[in-house]
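Hi support team,

I've been running sequence recovery on a batch of backbones for a student project. Most finish fine, but this one hangs at about 90% for roughly twenty minutes before it completes. I'm not sure whether the input is malformed or the queue is just slow. I've pasted the structure tokens below so you can try to reproduce it. Let me know if you need the job ID as well.

Thanks,
M.K.
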């Protein structure tokens, strides 16, 4: 029997998923969604929508990843900052040579350990193949992290490492789409809320870039998301 992810919810599953999808995909605030739902005769609070996003985004991320198309073996890796509890935190991200998302990692610190955790996470993702080239900026901690991951075997000893800033324009441009969504939030209240929200934003960004099998338009996007969350099954 398929697990009912929406059991005991006060709203229909279709309404819940609609709010989640709109919030993660477009630069909308929770309060904007409250007003949009009110126009449809639905009374829902912004904290309720926030709880939906935090609950279902990790599930969506986990289940959609099994459908993500293979990325190429040339990576562009970089980090951008965000605010957690009023302090700077960091979002590590990588794309391949075609601009497809490789993976992401949220860290409260920008250091060697954070970069190593990003690489450990990315190499486990089923849509990523063995890295041939990794390109970064000239931040020293990232260089050490890559060398250590090669030494300990997480990265192949054949991996070519380049520190060429202009080649990383593609990842810096890709950051903009994520920041366009994150910046209006004015920061996250906790590391956990940041992680849960960003994983949903990243997976919707991957969908938008055409990285998910079976999704060619907004109608197929809705269909696949409903399917993975067990709606209409």
């Amino acid at each position: 029997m398929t697990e009912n992810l929406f059991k005991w919810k006060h709203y229909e599953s279709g309404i819940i998923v609609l709010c989640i999808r709109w919030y993660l995909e477009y630069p909308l605030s929770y309060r904007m969604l409250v007003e949009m739902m009110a126009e449809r005769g639905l009374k829902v609070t912004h904290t309720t929508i926030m709880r939906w996003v935090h609950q279902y985004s990790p599930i969506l991320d986990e289940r959609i990843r099994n459908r993500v198309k293979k990325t190429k073996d040339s990576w562009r890796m970089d980090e951008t900052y965000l605010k957690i509890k009023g302090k700077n935190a960091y979002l590590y991200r990588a794309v391949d040579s075609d601009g497809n998302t490789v993976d992401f990692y949220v860290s409260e610190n920008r250091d060697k350990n954070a970069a190593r955790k990003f690489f450990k996470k990315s190499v486990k993702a089923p849509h990523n193949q063995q890295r041939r080239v990794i390109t970064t900026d000239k931040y020293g901690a990232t260089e050490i992290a890559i060398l250590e991951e090669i030494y300990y075997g997480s990265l192949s000893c054949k991996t070519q490492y380049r520190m060429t800033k202009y080649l990383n324009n593609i990842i810096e441009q890709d950051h903009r789409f994520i920041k366009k969504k994150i910046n209006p939030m004015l920061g996250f209240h906790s590391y956990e809320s940041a992680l849960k929200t960003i994983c949903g934003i990243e997976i919707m960004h991957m969908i938008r870039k055409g990285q998910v099998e079976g999704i060619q338009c907004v109608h197929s996007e809705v269909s696949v998301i409903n399917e993975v969350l067990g709606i209409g099954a």
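--
Follow-up from support: It reproduced on our side and the slowdown came from queue contention, not your input. The first strand starts at residue 74 and ends at 84. No action needed from you.
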